[in-house]
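Sharing a chain and its predicted structure for anyone who wants a worked example. Both blocks are below, sequence first, tokens second.
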Amino acid sequence: MTIKLPVQNMTGAEVGEVELDPTVFEAPINVGLMHQAYVRQMANARLGTHSTKTRSENNRTKSKWYRQKGTGRARHGSRNAPIFVGGGIAHGPKPRKYTKQMPRKMRRGALRSALSAKAAEGEIVVVDQLELEAPKTRFMKDALYALVGDETSLVLLAQKNENVELSIRNLEEARYLRAMYLNVRDLLKYDRVIIPLDALEQINNWLGLDQAPVGEEGVEVADA
């Protein structure tokens, strides 16, 4: 059964109705695939710059701590040994890459699963347009309250909209995101997803036809 949602304006009044693309919003919900995409995204966000010093890198004296015999203590050659305070770290972390690979079809399948789960739970809100004459956080807060109430919300934008972006930036419970940079982590993090009609069209063209997203200058955008 095709999902139909009311289209609201920024005051929360219903101004129309839209039919969601079943290939995008009624896809099979694959929890394992969404989890794999989430783990990949979080792993790719890691810098991997952590580093500890081994006993050879530690800047302490290399001379023998005390004489070999006659003290009654155990034999030790250096204070850099990992068993001593201030010594080197044994088997500590070193800089490395945490990046994971995932085929494009699987990444987009995970996005379809997440969007379908949101649609099935009634957590998608469609708005005709999001426009402000000037950046004003209070106006955007009132609009989001009229659309979703007090719940956290992810606002998708079809293109750069400085007034809207600046207005959302100071709201703790909301975040804006370009539709072509949609990702599983943000979809699952927020209670509601607010999608203007132009952003919805972009998502349908991207995930419905399974074609590579194209940026403003015609450059293919990498999936998150």
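Comments welcome. The first strand starts at residue 4 and ends at 8.
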